[in-house]
Structures are given as structure tokens and as C-alpha cells.
Amino acid sequence: MTDLETRESLTRFDPAYAKPSVVDLLLNDDLRRLRDFISADPFGSHVFPGVLENYSEEKYLEDMHRSLASAPEFHLWGTIPLCNYRCKFCQFAVIVRHHNEEKGLAQSSDWVEMNKKEAKLLIEKVPQIAKTPVGEFNLFGGTPTQLPDSALSDLIGFYLDTFNFLPSSSVRVEGSREHDNEETATA
Q: What is the pLDDT of residues 118-154, one digit of tens each?
């Protein structure tokens, strides 16, 4: 995608909604390198330590702590990469649950425990993340609703108990209609 195409794509948004404030920022000529980085691979453009030159893990964690300390809220994302197939735009890992129900339940429990362990490691490195109010929580990465209801409830309960959710915080879980069932629909 050329820079002109990228700039034009930034100006196409639903007029029924307010113009995203990031548009003006990204249209700034001084940020062409960032536009190039994002347009080269929109799903790979998340900023993690090592992605940008001279940006260490320590610097990343310091920046995260500083940002959270002054933020009124933040958006928290968790992922359980369960999918039946890989969408053409997706670069996440795809995991298929074991066909044996007992082994599938054990796998699900392991994934939930690993997810919780990773969140706890982040809290150790950036304690401010557990104190800053959560504006929105997204559990995504495929179809977390493929988890058994008990495992999904355990994972969401962990996040609700561990992070600073407010009555106004929204919680979203990615799912698909093929995984709806009466028990999940009423949970």
C-alpha cells in the first residue's frame, strides 16, 4: 500500500460516528514511518518490546507504568486462541480442542491457567495495571466461547477479581453463533 493509499484509507470512516482522533495524528507528515509500519502489517503492528529499534523491555514496561498511572482507564485484552479455522487476515495461533471430551476439558483448564499466569506475571512487572480502572475488557483471539462454560466463567471471574473493574466497565467476549447454546446464552 502506498502512503497516498494509506492516507486516503484513514479518511474513510462511517460518518454516523465521530471522526477518530487518531486520524489527525496519523495524517501528520512527521509520522510517515509509523504509517508505513502500520500499513505494512496491520495485525503485526502492535508495539511489543523488540519490534521497534532501541526499545527495550524495560523501556516498554516503564512507559506502560507511566501511561497507566495517569490514565483515567485502560482497555484490557485477554486471548484464548480457539478457532475452527483461520480467517485470512488472522496471524494468531489457532488451537483446536482435543476431540476426546475429557482431554479437551484438561486442555481448556491448562489454557485458562496459562492465561491467568501470564496476567499475574504482567502485574508483577507493572503493578499499576491492577490499580487502573478497566474501561473495557475484551476476551478474544479466536472463539473463547469454545471453552467449557466452567472454564470460561473461571477465566472471566479471575479478570474481574484481579483487575479494577468499575460498574461502568464493559466486558466483551468474542464468540460465534455456532457455539451458542441455551446454557451459555443465559449465563
A: 999 999 999 999 999 999 999 987 678 778 888 889 9
CA distances from 19 to 51, 75, 136, 139 (A): 29, 20, 20, 26
Question: What whole-number distance in Å separates Cα of residue 162 and Cα of residue 116?
Answer: 10
CB contact at 8 A, 100 and 108? no
CA dist list (Å): 83 to 113, 180, 186: 19, 14, 22
- Burial tier of 129 (Cβ tally within 10 Å: 0-12, 13-18, 19+): buried
pTM of the complete model beyond 0.70? no
Check if the beta carbon of residue 175 is closer than 8 Å to that of residue 143.
yes
- Inter-residue contact 94 to 81 (CB < 8 Å): yes
Residues 6+ apart with CB under 8 A from 135: 72, 73, 74, 75, 168, 169, 170
Torsional class of 83: left (φ above 0), alpha (ψ -120 to 50), beta (otherwise)? beta
